[in-house]
Amino acid sequence: MKALCFLLFGLAAQAELPPKKIELFRVSSAPFVQTIALIGTLKAKQEVVLISKASGILSPVTPEGSQVKKGALLARLDQDSSLRKSLQDASTQLKNQKNKLERAQKLYHQGDFSLKDLESAQNDFASTRKSYRELEFRLSDSELRAPFNGTCGLFRAEAGSYVSAGSAIVTVYDAQSFTLYFSVPESLLPSMRIGLPVSVQGNSGRITSFENRLNPQTQVAYAKAELDSCTGCTIGTKVSVSIALPNKTHSISAPLESVFLKGGTSYVYRVVHQKALLTPVKTGERSKNRIEILSGLKMGDEIVLRGTRRLNHDDSVY
């Protein structure tokens, strides 16, 4: 009899438990943005290794690591000390031959010069110009110039050392503009689109191209994105890439914190007539702070947003 009294008292006390305060979330249909994380490699948008076209003694002109403009002279290969002197002499000869040709043309039109003599002057000028251009070309082969605005890297050989034609001399790169290269697994390839936003260390960009095919060895596809800027980024490093996939319109989703696992099943607490009802749900894709609900909820349902751990099925809430 005494035990029965205690039981009845306990039930009465439980029935009189005050309702628990909760925070509600009303389920609605909204675009669902799925974000995925991949690994990529940062490279300079423009990067060129300058190769020597001639052999000679390396003579750097531009300090390593300095900013350069397109066309700036970075280094020379001193092939022959007489080459520049020969070019200067050829330039003087070319001017002289040009003056002679102009004088011959004037005299010919005045009738004081024969056609044969005019043609001889023309041939002399053409021959001198050809020699000058050959020397000029040889000299240009001995000069290394910046192909675009950027940064002059480190020289691969010491100043004063002999380098052969075809040797890599220095890298010029644009440290302000970055290109991101990354691999896409087969499961995500159908979701790839040109223009999808990407994020790297808080820096934004967009996918500019991708291969709609898998590499037979790696079973991944390759993609490329251009970053608007990349503060704190280093060329050549591997980075985490966040990609926002296309929105799923008319998708029901819930805040991640409102969904919990119990016995391998996903649940939410649905609130009906101020009662918390344990409700199983089937979930889909996840975004940064939301999870897609495939079944178990409908638009307009109210669920418990926070505090699910202290609730039990059929608890009174407000």
Itemize the secondary structure elements and their pairings.
Elements: H1 2-15, E1 23-26, E2 29-32, E3 35-44, E4 47-51, E5 56-60, E6 67-68, E7 73-78, H2 81-110, H3 115-141, E8 143-145, E9 150-152, E10 162-163, E11 168-173, E12 178-185, E13 197-200, E14 203-210, E15 220-227, E16 238-244, E17 248-255, E18 260-262, E19 265-272, E20 275-280, E21 282-286, E22 290-295, E23 302-306, E24 315-316
Antiparallel strand pairs: 1-23, 2-17, 3-12, 3-16, 4-11, 5-7, 5-10, 6-9, 7-8, 9-11, 12-15, 13-14, 13-16, 14-15, 17-22, 18-19, 19-20, 20-24, 21-22
Describe the structure.
The protein is an alpha+beta fold and 318 residues long. The protein has three domains: 84 residues, conserved putative lor/sdh protein from methanococcus maripaludis s2 fold (Beta Barrel), CATH 2.40.420; 141 residues, Beta Barrel (Elongation Factor Tu (Ef-tu), domain 3), CATH 2.40.30; 62 residues. The protein is 22% helix and 40% strand. It contains three helices and 24 strands. It has a six-stranded antiparallel barrel with strand order 3-12-15-14-13-16. Strands 2-17-22-21 form a four-stranded antiparallel sheet, with no helix packed on it. β19 and β20 form a beta hairpin. α2 packs antiparallel against α3. The radius of gyration is 38 Å and the shape is rod-shaped. The N terminus is likely disordered.
pLDDT averaged residue by residue: 86
CATH superfamily placement of the largest domain = Efflux pump adaptor protein, beta barrel domain
Strand order of the largest sheet: 3-12-15-14-13-16
CATH topology name of the largest domain: Elongation Factor Tu (Ef-tu), domain 3
The number of E-state strands comes to 24
Query: How many H/I helices?
Result: 3
| Name of the CATH class of the largest domain | Mainly Beta
What general outline do the C-alpha atoms trace?
A: rod-shaped
Under the CATH scheme, the architecture of the largest domain is Beta Barrel
Count of spatially separate domains: 3
Helix content: 10-25%
The H/E string reads: HEEEEEEEHHEEEEEEEEEEEEEEEEE
- SS class: alpha+beta
